[in-house]
DNA sequence: AAAACTTTCAACCGCGTTCAC
DNA sequence: GGTGAACGCGGTTGAAAGTTT
């Protein structure tokens, strides 16, 4: 990246950054080895002096970033799992763009990675729905559709592994609405084709991830926590009764999706819904919603 | 096959905060 | 308490990889 030094605010220039011999851009394997070997021998210490001592022509900042985001042995790489996606959505609804704080609840994931996930996946979907990522419409879509859907997907993909899914399942059971197949929906094709494609990172186990633990540790009830934060009345809780026999046809779609104002959007026939609601009267929105959901949960 | 377009993510920047003197 | 250096965070960029036309 070309750096225009004339744009620098001279008051904020660090001494190390005044060195025009500083190297920037992608790290080489040799640089990585230098940094890893130095830290293995001496520990992290002060980054600016570490960079010099290790023989790296990099800023301390750059070394720190490279170590924390890439070289650290406990950095977890690969796709964001369903559990992690759910955690990110939950915590972002609570804290906003506090990436570092969110990352603390996703061991092995970096704030940078979570930030990138949010920008490349979630913000993109908001755009495709034609709404702002911070809009009430999009937040409600996440709360009332995607997060229950994610929880159900997690439950279904971990049902063969009870030890892994115990905690999550408990929360799903505590928070999801009735789940029965909904008939007559115009969106069935796109959903049904994708319903079996949920993936779980093979590296994810109850041992190496504390995502599920974090629910307990921090009393994060996926829906109820948001309810506390949100001013809108939420009707999801206490309608607890997951029907595992009937949840397979449309894996996890609530037959009765409750709106922020407390009205049902669908009945069993998928026909009855609240009038004059912001979610309604926009067929494009619904069409986009299902398309977006496919993309959100695929990968 | 290649150009055009899109997506991903490593790395950078600026700024506020913390630390050390 | 003041000051400068270093750290940490969130926003942004752009090269590379992937996909579409």
TrEMBL record:
It comes from Aquilegia coerulea (Rocky mountain columbine). Residues 19-71, 72-122 form the Myb-like domain. Residues 198-213 have a biased composition (Polar residues). This is Uncharacterized protein. InterPro entries: EOBI/EOBII-like_plant, Homeodomain-like_sf, Myb_dom, SANT/Myb. GO terms for molecular function: DNA-binding transcription factor activity; sequence-specific DNA binding. SMART domains: SANT (SM00717). Residues 185-197 have a biased composition (Low complexity).
């Amino acid at each position: 990246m070309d750096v225009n030094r004339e744009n620098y605010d001279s008051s904020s220039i660090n001494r190390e950054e005044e060195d025009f011999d500083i190297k920037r851009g992608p790290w080489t394997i040799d640089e990585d080895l230098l940094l890893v070997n130095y830290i293995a021998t001496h520990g992290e210490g002060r980054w600016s002096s570490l960079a010099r001592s290790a023989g790296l022509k990099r800023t301390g900042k750059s070394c720190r970033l490279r170590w924390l985001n890439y070289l650290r042995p406990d950095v977890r790489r690969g796709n964001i799992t369903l559990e992690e996606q759910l955690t990110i959505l939950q915590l972002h609804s609570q804290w906003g763009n506090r990436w570092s704080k969110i990352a603390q609840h996703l061991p092995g994931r970096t704030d940078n990675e979570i930030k990138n996930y949010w920008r490349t996946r979630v913000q993109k979907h908001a755009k495709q729905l034609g709404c702002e990522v911070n809009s009430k419409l999009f937040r409600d879509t996440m709360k009332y559709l995607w997060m229950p859907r994610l929880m159900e997907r997690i439950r279904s993909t971990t049902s063969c592994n009870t030890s892994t899914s115990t905690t999550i399942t408990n929360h799903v059971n505590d928070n999801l609405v009735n789940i029965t197949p909904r008939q007559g929906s115009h969106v069935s094709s796109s959903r049904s084709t994708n319903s079996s494609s949920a993936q779980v990172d093979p590296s994810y186990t109850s041992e190496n991830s504390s995502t599920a633990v974090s629910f307990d540790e921090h009393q994060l009830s996926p829906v109820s926590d948001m309810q506390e934060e949100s001013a809108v009345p939420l009707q999801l809780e206490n309608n607890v009764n997951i029907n595992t026999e009937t949840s397979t046809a449309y894996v996890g779609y609530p037959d009765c999706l409750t709106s922020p104002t407390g009205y049902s959007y669908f009945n069993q026939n998928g026909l009855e819904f609240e009038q004059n609601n912001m979610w309604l009267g926009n067929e494009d929105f619904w069409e986009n919603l299902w398309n977006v959901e496919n993309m959100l949960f695929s990968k």
